[in-house]
């Protein structure tokens, strides 16, 4: 290193060779003058001789690299001239720099404590430093839960079950090869936009209650039933469950009680046991129509409201969430009719006998389901059935199509593959019979084949297969995976239709 302002290399006292005479202190300095008499190895240094001068307090030299460019100190890194010091920080006290040591006489001990520079002036932090720190530690505000004030609790003894179902041993899915004609689509669920944006249960209830009615049914065989329904157009059509009005299918009467306590007689327009839906009509009904939402856009956890007449208590409002979707549910207790298979919305909103046929609505007051059934504790008998937080609703996307068919023709169709499945088999849907010339027969399905998936969705029971098929429409193509003799196979078939 030839630069005059470069610091000398620090010698290691453990390996340095002894020197008889060190360079004289009287050598010419930068001004060419002598500083004093020569020093020998036996001459003690003059006071202050060889000591490193301290930097001037208040200077900024602690924040700057020396002008020598590269240094060879024991701990110094190679830095270019003018580079930022490795010990410099954004603000606050700089880290101490290790000082170099130049022995003045032979045997001089290394100093045990290096001089420390502590500047008297510390640069202040930025003016908004506290705000910056506060923002970095600030957490998002917690969302407040809606609080619903409960006026009173009424203990009710439940006597009947809404839509409890019993599975049959074998369900025949016979095909119908008649051409599938396009049905007219009467406008339903096109009421005025509720324009509810507050997410308030009370606002949803105030909007929907005028559209919800109570049904009182008397059959020709002295059977009776009560349930709920809601207005779906401006000509008095009301959507409800089939099991609510089934008693009047062969004679009897259906009375409709509106929210303002007006009673009128309704006629049965049509019903679909396969989907557990029915439509009745009241001439001159002035109740407003509801607006349909989209059940396929419902998400687990979203808030919902159920409205109906549980145990004959008209205008009852309960709230909860969607706790599951696509839940396979079987309903129907009439041995003379086929069971209903529903890919249901599951909710914990309280649903009790009498809620059947009432609407399940989102927080924008749009109907997304038709309340149809509840789960009960196994072994509970009559007088003990009631809500346990597991209610099921028919998705409104399916209910809309069925209601349009019933209004247009009085009947509704549902899709079939043209085969029967064993309801007692577990681990798939085992084919027990195949109808001739049906989609299943044309696809090559045989008795004993075990269907394991439909459109890549697993099938672990006969109920799951039937429910999955009924989420489609006649004429649609589905892909089935099945096992035969230990080998997996796949086939695509087009769904036929059946009336019911």
UniProtKB/TrEMBL annotation:
<keyword id="KW-0812">Transmembrane</keyword>
<comment type="similarity">
    <text>Belongs to the peptidase S1C family.</text>
</comment>
<feature type="compositionally biased region" description="Polar residues">
    <location>
        <begin position="58"/>
        <end position="101"/>
    </location>
</feature>
<feature type="domain" description="PDZ">
    <location>
        <begin position="406"/>
        <end position="486"/>
    </location>
</feature>
<dbReference type="InterPro" id="IPR009003">
    <property type="entry name" value="Peptidase_S1_PA"/>
</dbReference>
<keyword id="KW-0645">Protease</keyword>
<dbReference type="GO" id="GO:0004252">
    <property type="term" value="F:serine-type endopeptidase activity"/>
</dbReference>
<protein>
    <submittedName>
        <fullName>PDZ domain-containing protein</fullName>
    </submittedName>
</protein>
<dbReference type="InterPro" id="IPR001940">
    <property type="entry name" value="Peptidase_S1C"/>
</dbReference>
<feature type="transmembrane region" description="Helical">
    <location>
        <begin position="147"/>
        <end position="173"/>
    </location>
</feature>
<keyword id="KW-1133">Transmembrane helix</keyword>
<dbReference type="GO" id="GO:0006508">
    <property type="term" value="P:proteolysis"/>
</dbReference>
<dbReference type="Pfam" id="PF13365">
    <property type="entry name" value="Trypsin_2"/>
</dbReference>
<dbReference type="InterPro" id="IPR043504">
    <property type="entry name" value="Peptidase_S1_PA_chymotrypsin"/>
</dbReference>
<feature type="region of interest" description="Disordered">
    <location>
        <begin position="1"/>
        <end position="102"/>
    </location>
</feature>
<dbReference type="Pfam" id="PF13180">
    <property type="entry name" value="PDZ_2"/>
</dbReference>
<keyword id="KW-0472">Membrane</keyword>
<feature type="compositionally biased region" description="Low complexity">
    <location>
        <begin position="34"/>
        <end position="51"/>
    </location>
</feature>
<keyword id="KW-0378">Hydrolase</keyword>
<dbReference type="InterPro" id="IPR001478">
    <property type="entry name" value="PDZ"/>
</dbReference>
<dbReference type="InterPro" id="IPR036034">
    <property type="entry name" value="PDZ_sf"/>
</dbReference>
<dbReference type="InterPro" id="IPR051201">
    <property type="entry name" value="Chloro_Bact_Ser_Proteases"/>
</dbReference>
């Amino acid at each position: 290193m030839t630069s005059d302002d470069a610091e000398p290399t620090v010698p290691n006292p453990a390996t340095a060779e002894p020197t008889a005479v060190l360079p004289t202190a009287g050598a010419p300095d930068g001004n060419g003058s002598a500083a004093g008499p020569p020093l020998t190895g036996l001459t003690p240094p003059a006071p202050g001789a060889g000591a490193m001068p301290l930097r001037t307090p208040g200077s900024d030299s602690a924040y700057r690299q020396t002008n020598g460019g590269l240094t060879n100190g024991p701990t110094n890194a190679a830095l270019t001239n003018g580079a930022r010091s490795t010990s410099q920080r954004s603000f606050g006290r700089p880290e101490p720099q290790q000082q170099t040591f130049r022995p003045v006489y032979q045997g001089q001990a290394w100093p045990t404590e290096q001089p420390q520079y502590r500047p008297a002036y510390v640069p202040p932090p930025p003016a908004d430093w506290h705000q910056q720190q506060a923002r970095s530690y600030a957490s998002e505000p917690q969302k407040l839960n809606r609080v619903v004030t409960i006026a009173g609790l009424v203990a009710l003894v439940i006597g009947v079950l809404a839509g409890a179902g019993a599975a049959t041993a074998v369900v025949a899915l016979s095909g119908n090869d008649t051409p599938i004609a396009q049905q007219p689509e009467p406008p339903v669920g096109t009421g005025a936009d509720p324009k509810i944006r507050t997410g308030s249960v009370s606002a949803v209830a105030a909007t929907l209650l005028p559209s919800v009615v109570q049904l009182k049914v008397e059959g020709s065989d002295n059977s009776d039933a009560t349930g709920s329904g809601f207005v779906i157009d401006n000509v008095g059509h009301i959507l409800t469950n089939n099991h609510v009005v089934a008693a009047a299918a062969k004679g009897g009467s259906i009375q409709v009680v509106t929210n303002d306590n007006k009673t009128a007689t309704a006629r049965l327009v049509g019903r679909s046991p396969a989907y557990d839906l029915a439509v009745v009509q009241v001439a001159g009904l002035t109740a407003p129509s509801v607006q349909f939402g989209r059940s396929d856009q419902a998400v687990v956890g979203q808030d919902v409201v159920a409205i109906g007449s549980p145990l004959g208590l008209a205008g009852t409002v309960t709230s909860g969430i969607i706790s599951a979707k696509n839940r396979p549910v079987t309903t129907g207790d009439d041995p003379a009719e086929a069971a209903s298979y529903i890919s249901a919305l599951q909710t914990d909103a309280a649903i009790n006998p009498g809620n059947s046929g009432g609407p399940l609505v989102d927080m924008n007051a749009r109907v997304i389901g038709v309340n149809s059934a509840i789960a009960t504790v196994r072994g509970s008998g009559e007088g003990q059935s009631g809500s346990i937080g597991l209610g099921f609703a028919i998705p409104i996307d399916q209910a809309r199509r069925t209601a349009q068919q019933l209004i247009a023709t009085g009947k509704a169709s549902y899709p079939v593959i043209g085969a029967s499945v064993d309801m007692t088999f577990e681990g798939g849907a085992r084919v027990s019979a195949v109808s001739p010339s049906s989609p299943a027969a044309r696809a090559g399905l045989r008795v004993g084949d075990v269907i394991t998936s439909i459109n890549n969705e697993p099938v672990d029971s006969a109920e799951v297969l039937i429910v999955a098929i009924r989420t489609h429409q006649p004429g649609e193509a589905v892909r089935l995976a099945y096992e035969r003799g230990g080998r997996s196979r796949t086939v695509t078939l087009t769904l036929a239709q059946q009336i019911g």
